[in-house]
Write a structure and sequence with these properties.
The complex is a heterodimer of chains A (about 300) and B (about 350). Chain A has about 300 residues and is mainly α. Chain A has 11 helices and no strands. Chain A has a single domain, classed as MetI-like fold. In chain B, the strands form 2 sheets. An 8-stranded mixed sheet of chain B has the order 6-7-8-3-9-10-12-11, with helices on both faces. Chain B has a 4-stranded antiparallel sheet with strand order 2-1-4-5. Helix content of chain B is about 30%, strand content about 20%. Classes of the chains: A mainly alpha (about 300), B alpha/beta (about 350). The interface between A and B is large, with 31 and 48 residues.
Chain lengths: ~300, ~350
């Protein structure tokens, strides 16, 4: 090479440099999946109803407004009334709040515990891994619904307790996933590079490895929201939730005896649960596809 | 010329490695029987002169990369001493170790996994300066731009992410990151073996220019003899965790003494194969023995076409047979005639 002062010019621009921010690329990939878009719009509609409808409607979901068991559409009640003559439409709309709040915070607790345990186990390995994985297995072998019921019964049946109970019984999957991702990524050279430039463990775990481990964890988190909503419904159905807060599970639980005589009292909140979990699952699937580099066009 | 070759501590040596051992324990088979130990690097000595390029060659599994990572304290060291610029590296911990890391940086083999895919190219190059507190924030930004220019990238490319660069460009980013803290020694762990040949030459030339301009010292790991011959001043040949031959470039390539080196050199494809010239390429049979339970004698003996009884029983030591040329082989006599030459003459 000639001894010139000019810096060497890059000759290896064989691939054109495509300037696309990862966020843009992610959106492009997500928006290619129509089911994921439908799921997102549906979920947003439910969230909007939960957040703003109560303030707009100014109603009490527990109020008896008409005679019990009025079928849907009759007498001006779109979804009918339940065993106590409550307007099911109002109850379902108000119930979205508790269901979503518990679902989201339980998923948050799940992700937090799962990532903390999984990342420490996967990063440090050795005895840390042994101890944390034995704890994880302990929680895995307990029947989750029973454990959640015990936890809620032991403490007061309030929404925070329910959320914590669901979080405590369902973090194991996230922990194992996070551990696997950390074990894979910690062997990559950019982690060695981070250490060679003097990064401490804390920085390597949270700033170097975690961002790269996030895609599968985000997908898992979305699916966890669905599972947590079902959990909350199951607990409310069994009467193990705050009796003073309207929720879909509680509606189903209150009306379960009248399933054959007035099926809409159970199906209306059931459909609400179904649609919410479906939308969250569609979002999770869409995220999974969007994060999967194999589906990306070259 | 005894068992401790060429260990005269020299002010000219930037890196002095002696008796370095890196053993990895294998997981125990069950509660009672402990697992074996992988002797990845089993007692090697070498010195790297300031401003020179020291090459370590060997095939996959010879321990060459482990030897390089050990010099950077990136793998746990079982025994031995590593002195960088007179400072013992093996006992440093915590902040003292982090401070020494400024002086020794590394360029990795695979440019696709050595850059954090979630960081922008500029941040990748800037990070070492942020972590080691080099200069003011403004100076760091200026230096990143300067480094980008210096390694042949455009300064406006700092905003791109690694996947937006080609392999050669990524390796340039890796080089810029290694240069960021103005180190004295750069460990190059097969920096071009993942690149295609045309781009290999560009990166090698870049490394040479940078060495000339900044007075850098390289510890260059490679399995490619052509690359090593092009860039290295001194070369050590590793086989199964040990150095079997060490010499300056000219002596090693003109008169390889160890049968393994000879086999390696004869295996390099050459375009200058003349008609009528007999094909005296050696083809080694078999694989290197397992580093878990190395054989008692010379590690190369099972594959060596010249091996005698003694080779299987006694382990040869690395000794200096002529000025600056060290070899570990029973069959190289004081007359410095290697076995392959003897056999050819007979």
């Amino acid at each position: 090479m000639a001894d010139t002062e000019a810096p060497p010019t890059p000759m290896d621009d064989t691939e054109p440099v495509r300037i696309e921010h990862p966020v843009v690329e992610f959106l492009r990939m997500y928006l290619r999946n129509w089911a994921a878009i439908a799921g997102f719009l549906m979920f947003m509609a439910i969230v909007f109803a939960a957040l703003f409808a109560p303030a707009l409607l100014q109603r009490d979901p527990f109020e008896m407004v008409w005679m019990p068991f009025s079928p849907p559409g009759k007498d001006g009640y779109l979804l009918g009334t339940d065993n106590l003559g409550r307007d099911l439409l109002i109850a379902v709309i108000y119930g979205a709040r508790a269901t979503l709040a518990v679902g989201a915070s339980a998923a948050g607790i799940t992700i937090f515990i799962g990532i903390t345990i999984g990342s420490l186990a996967g990063y440090y390995r050795g005895w840390v891994d042994e101890v944390l994985m034995r704890i994880t297995e302990f929680f895995q072998v307990l029947p989750p619904l029973l454990l959640a019921m015990v936890l809620v019964s032991l403490f007061s049946p309030t929404l925070p307790t329910v959320a914590i109970a669901i979080g405590v019984v369902s973090w194991t999957g996230v922990a194992r996933l996070a551990r696997a991702e950390f074990m894979r990524i910690r062997e990559l050279e950019f982690v060695k590079a981070a250490r060679s430039i003097g990064s401490r463990d804390r920085r390597i775990i949270w700033r170097v490895i975690l961002p790269n481990a996030l895609p599968p964890l985000i997908v898992n988190a979305a699916l966890t929201v669905g599972v947590a909503i079902l959990f909350e419904a199951a607990l409310s159905f069994l009467g193990l939730s705050d009796p003073n807060v309207m929720s879909w599970g509680k509606l189903i639980g209150d009306n379960r005896d009248y399933l054959l005589d007035a099926p809409w009292t159970v199906t209306m909140p059931g459909v609400a649960i179904f649609l919410t979990v479906l939308s969250v699952s569609l979002i999770g699937d869409g995220l999974n596809d969007a994060f999967n580099p194999r589906l990306r066009e070259r | 010329m005894s068992s401790a070759p060429n260990l005269n501590a020299d002010a000219d040596n930037l890196l002095e490695v002696s008796g370095l051992k890196v053993h990895f324990p294998l997981p125990r088979k069950n509660l009672m029987t402990p697992g074996g130990t992988v002797h990845a690097v089993d007692g090697i000595n070498y010195n790297v002169r300031r401003g020179s390029t020291f090459g370590i060659v060997g095939e996959s599994g010879s321990g060459k990369t482990t030897a390089a990572l050990a010099a950077m304290r990136l793998v746990p060291i079982t025994a031995g001493s590593i002195r960088l610029d007179g400072t013992e590296m093996t006992t440093l911990e915590g902040d003292a170790l982090r401070a020494m890391r400024r002086k020794i940086q590394i360029v990795f083999q695979d440019p696709y996994s050595s850059l954090n895919p979630r960081m922008r190219a500029g941040a990748i190059v800037r990070e070492p300066m942020d972590l080691m507190d080099v200069g003011s924030p403004d100076e760091r930004d200026r230096r990143v731009a300067e480094l980008f220019r210096r390694v042949g990238l455009r300064p406006e490319q700092v905003a791109l992410f690694p996947h937006q660069f080609s392999g050669g460009q990524r390796q340039r980013i890796g080089v810029a990151r290694a240069l960021a803290t103005q180190p004295e020694l750069i460990v190059c762990d097969e920096p071009v073996s993942a690149l295609d040949v045309a781009i290999q030459a560009q990166i090698l030339n870049l490394l040479r220019e940078l060495q000339r301009d900044f007075g850098l010292t390289y510890l260059f790991i490679s399995h490619d003899l052509g690359v090593v011959q092009y860039i290295c001043d001194d070369i050590a040949v590793m086989y199964l965790g040990e150095i079997v031959e060490q010499s300056d470039r000219i002596s090693l390539f003109s008169t390889p003494l160890h049968p393994y080196t000879w086999a390696l050199i004869s295996a390099v494809p050459s375009a200058r194969h003349r008609k009528g010239e007999e094909d005296n390429r050696v083809r080694l049979q078999g694989d290197p023995p397992s580093p878990i339970d190395p054989p008692p004698g010379c590690h190369f003996a099972p594959r060596c076409p010249f091996a005698e009884d003694r080779c299987h029983r006694e382990k040869p030591s690395l000794r200096e047979v002529k000025a600056g040329h060290l070899v570990s082989c029973h069959l190289v006599g004081e007359d410095c005639v290697p076995p392959h030459v003897k056999t050819a003459a007979a």
